[in-house]
């Protein structure tokens, strides 16, 4: 596959996402149709692009970086398939198309998610094979922590039982750390671990993942309250209907925006330290700017961060 450039990156990962899970000739037609539906409706592909660029900054080879990037995007996509199920969020639209469980049944959506997870683990193992044994062990343990009962699964369980929990900022952030932050950590920290990054740089990436993960979740919460389905590309106004965690609903829109801006500023500080230590990571500044642009789009120009407010 061609080497990544800014111009070809999106095309590269559009192909990699669709082709990363080979479909055998003997595959059941129902499962094949569901998989083709999901693989044909990719998201923005920002996540695999970030995985790839972090991996390359820490000297992972191109093929290993692509495998890892596709793996993380498959983990993420599988989590969305589960999230959309009637027993979870009961959504109807995802990435501008009907949710998989509506088009192919709940069983079809579940099997599709499991196929993505299975393939994602295989791609992670392929990518990890070229790292030193210590980095391999740390990376594979990290995947388990972020996706298992310490991370994503615990966050999802808290989400499902939110009605019995205090509806406040602390609870919503605890859930976001389990769900959204866990996947951002896989995006930014996992490739650095496999690249045998210095401990200080891994620590800074952990901080950035925390603040950006919370920020992205708060933007998503604001979208659910303020956006139309066409603008969001998915079902909106579900959190209030299903009594699911939403910081904008729990704390109010002004308080949610204020908290979001604080997280962005704290993330800026960690990013500045990281770029100073490793200039090759300066590309993350573009992602940070896109986060602010999305905040402005969702909430209006009244929420724009002034230059003086940034750390």
Description of the structure:
With 311 residues, the chain is an all-alpha fold. It has 2 domains: 8-130, Farnesyl Diphosphate Synthase (Orthogonal Bundle); 132-311, Farnesyl Diphosphate Synthase, CATH 1.10.600. Helix content is 70%, strand content 1%. It is built from 15 helices and 2 strands. It has helices spanning 9-19, 29-39, 46-57, 62-84, 100-128, 133-147, 152-160, 169-188, 190-194, 199-226, 229-232, 238-242, 247-251, 253-277, 284-299; strands at 93-94, 97-98. It has a two-stranded antiparallel sheet with strand order 1-2. A hairpin with a 2-residue loop joins strand 1 (93-94) and strand 2 (97-98). Helix 3 runs antiparallel to helix 4 (62-84), helix 6 packs antiparallel against helix 8 and helix 8 crosses helix 10. The termini are far apart. 41% of the residues are buried. Residues 301-311 have low confidence and may be disordered.
How are the SSEs ordered, and which strands pair?
Elements: H1 9-19, H2 29-39, H3 46-57, H4 62-84, E1 93-94, E2 97-98, H5 100-128, H6 133-147, H7 152-160, H8 169-188, H9 190-194, H10 199-226, H11 229-232, H12 238-242, H13 247-251, H14 253-277, H15 284-299
Helix pairs in contact: 2-5, 3-4, 3-8, 4-5, 6-8, 7-8, 8-10, 10-14, 10-15, 14-15
């Amino acid at each position: 596959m061609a080497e990544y450039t800014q111009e070809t990156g999106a095309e590269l990962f559009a192909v990699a996402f669709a082709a990363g899970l080979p479909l055998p000739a003997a595959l059941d037609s129902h499962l094949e149709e569901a998989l083709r539906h999901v693989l044909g409706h990719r998201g923005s592909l920002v996540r695999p692009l970030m995985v790839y660029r972090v991996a390359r900054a820490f000297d992972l080879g191109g093929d290993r970086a692509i495998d890892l990037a596709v793996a993380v995007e498959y983990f993420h996509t599988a989590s969305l398939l589960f999230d959309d199920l009637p027993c979870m969020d009961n959504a109807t639209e995802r990435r501008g198309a009907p949710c998989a469980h509506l088009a192919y049944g709940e069983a079809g959506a579940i099997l599709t998610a499991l196929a993505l997870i299975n393939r994602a683990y295989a791609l992670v193992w392929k990518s990890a094979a070229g790292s030193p044994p210590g980095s391999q062990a740390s990376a594979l343990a990290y995947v388990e922590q972020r996706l298992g009962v310490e991370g994503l699964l615990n966050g999802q369980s808290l989400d499902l039982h939110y009605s019995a929990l205090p509806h406040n900022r602390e609870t919503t952030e605890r859930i976001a750390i389990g769900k959204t932050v866990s996947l951002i950590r896989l995006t930014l920290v996992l490739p650095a671990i496999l690249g045998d990054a210095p401990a200080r740089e891994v620590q800074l990436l952990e901080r950035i993942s925390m603040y950006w993960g919370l920020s992205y979740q708060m933007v998503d919460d604001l979208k659910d309250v303020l956006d139309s389905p066409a603008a969001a590309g998915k079902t909106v106004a579900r959190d209030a209907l299903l009594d699911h965690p939403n910081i904008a609903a729990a704390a109010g829109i002004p308080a949610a925006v204020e908290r979001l801006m604080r997280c962005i500023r704290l993330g800026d500080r960690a990013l500045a330290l990281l770029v100073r230590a490793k200039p090759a990571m300066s590309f993350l500044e573009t992602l940070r700017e896109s986060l602010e642009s999305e905040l402005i789009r969702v909430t209006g120009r009244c929420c724009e961060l002034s230059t003086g407010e940034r750390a």
